[in-house]
Amino acid sequence: MFDAQDAPQPPKVLTTPLEIASNLRMLQESHDPLIITFNDRTQRFQSYMVEVSREASTMALDEMIPRDGERFIEAGIPFRVEGFHDGVRIAWECDSPLSIDDTGEHRCYRGALPKEVIYHQRRNAFRAALKLAHLVDVNVAGEKLKAAIKGKLLDVSATGCKLRFEGDISERIQLGQVYENFSAALPFGHMTTPVELRYLHFEERLNITFAGMRFHNISGAVQRQVERFVYQLQRDARRFDKDDDYY
């Protein structure tokens, strides 16, 4: 059903300063969320790349969410950073110390560029966006929630999805938490699976919360539902692009 180019690609190890800086700058310019995990600790923290300098071989990460992870930075504990950009996983180890800089408008953590970056192009994780007029209704529920949270599905891939919720729900859900009952009203039937919250951002100007979920222990049957839906969205997008050629 998919072309060979849609198959997962083996990971590459980037080692040149030019490759490393350009990929980190891509994360910065796209404002892609980064997940930070410290050695021997399970809690996840969120950050963003805010500065990359190939000339100085330095980078800066935005203040962590939640901020209590900063104590691990101060203790010099090594950590791992993982980000995703258009289905590409970009990850690296950070074992050199970072300095906390609060002199500017925003607090950040400065340090050296990594020596190696893992670049993993996973074509089967192509993220398909839904048209605004056809957004899918979703429900997030689980033991950690007092009540289910209703929202809309913005885009989806084989590994996760992006959601939109009205208002500020950041106090109700927690980064890194698994919610056992995520359901989406797909055109050919409901899908239900556990999800892990990987990204959370409240846009005050719009009064909307955006969330990124990764499918967690997804069953084979539900995985096939998701892949069928992604394929349908890809096919619709390609048809739309071809129609544009006539204008």
Would you give an account of this structure?
By secondary structure, this protein is of the alpha+beta class. Helix content is 18%, strand content 42%. It is built from three helices and 17 strands. The chain has helices at residues 17-30, 70-74, 220-244, and strands at residues 12-14, 34-38, 44-47, 49-53, 58-62, 79-85, 88-94, 99-101, 108-112, 117-121, 128-129, 136-141, 149-156, 160-166, 178-186, 189-203, 208-215. The strands form three sheets. A six-stranded antiparallel sheet has the order 1-10-7-6-2-3, covered by helices on one side. Strands 12-13-14-17-16-15 form a six-stranded antiparallel beta barrel. The model is unreliable at 1-7 and 241-247 (pLDDT under 50).
Key traits:
18% helix; 6-stranded antiparallel beta barrel; 3 helices; alpha+beta; 6-stranded antiparallel sheet; globular; disordered C terminus
Helical fraction: 10-25%
Rounded mean pLDDT is 84
Q: What class would the helix/strand composition place it in?
A: alpha+beta
Write the H/E string, N to C.
EHEEEEHEEEEEEEEEEEEH
Helix tally equals 3
Shape: globular
> β content, as a range?
35-45%
The side-by-side strand order for the widest beta sheet comes to: 1-10-7-6-2-3
Question: Which blocks of ≥5 consecutive residues have pLDDT under 50?
Answer: 1-7, 241-247
Cα-atom Rg, whole angstroms?
19 Å
Alpha carbon gap, first and last residue = 29 Å
Q: Largest sheet at a glance?
A: 6 strands, antiparallel
- Total beta strands: 17
